[in-house]
Amino acid sequence: MTLLTGLSTTLREPVLDAMVDATTVAVVVDQDELPGRGVLTWRVFDASGPIDAGEFSVGDDCGACQLIESLLPLLETLIAREHWQHVVLAAPPAMEARPLASTLVATMPEIEVDTVTCVVDAVLLVEQLSGDELLDERGLALGPPDRRNVAELTARQIEYADVCVLANAHRSMAPERLHNLLLHLNPRTTVVAADAGGVPGAPVAKLGLFDYAAAEAWAGDLAAEDRLQPSGDGVTTVLWRSTRPLHPARLNDALEDIVDGVVRSRGVVWLANRPTQRLRWESAGFSASLGTLGEWADTEHLAECTVVATGVGLDPARLQAVLDACLLTESELATLDWQSLDDPFAGVL
């Protein structure tokens, strides 16, 4: 199976057409009817033409979860026909490949996820990675609980992809910069430029590139030296690390400065007023979030802060200074009652 993701269904169509040959069946799930009717529509076709179509009902809880549950019987039916050797699953625009791949690996051993392909728009890529617009504001949320933003979805789709198809490359003023940006976000990926008609210039399916363990490790929450790529053409990735904890109030006050110029950052941080907790740090565009990962005592690591940040036109020294200013000072380390510090993140952690 090839999983196909990407925000633009228009740009995905020529890529999808290039994937379908005599041995391939395609399942395309769309979400145009989701806001109005609460359904995801699907169609099945192969090289000979349309085969079937229908829809999945989606409730008010988790559209992504219901999509996965509804897809499994359809996929089982196609497999039982024993007519094709390859399935292309084109996910809805707001769907990430990771939950789909994880479910398929866990529940359908008869399907081998072969390649995860993501189509990105060269004209809009930096804008999509840099803003704070919610999917819901664009009518793309997969249900009311979906509070992701466009930047978060775009980054996650890229980070899990074995192949990134750079559509509209001929309309971009700096295609090499975009190629470089994609590799900074995911060094595992192969970047393939599409021609003016949207057709990829190299194979993008049946490549045998998907490695579940590697994909999961890269999409995880940890930050490390292996995430660093050589800076070039205005794209920079920075590793920031400290063995001192962050002052929660100063971190909260500095959030806008931290994400300024950063399209994506991930890592693990240590808040002074939560000395035993490992906290996940993540930002995409102008949005940043913290989440709990467990206790430091449950790992082999001493408590520390480690963040990897990627940006276009990013000033590493400025970012380092902003983050350093959020740390407890030497005198605070010695004199402060850490537990008594105000907790601006109490409502989210």
UniProtKB/TrEMBL annotation:
List, for all copies, the residue spans of the domain called CobW C-terminal.
235-327
Q: Does the record bear Isomerase in its keywords?
A: no
Alphabetical keyword list: Chaperone, Nucleotide-binding
Q: Which Pfam families match?
A: CobW_C
Q: Which PANTHER family match?
A: COBW DOMAIN-CONTAINING PROTEIN DDB_G0274527, ZINC-REGULATED GTPASE METALLOPROTEIN ACTIVATOR 1
Listed name of the protein = GTP-binding protein
What's the source species for this entry? Kribbella sancticallisti
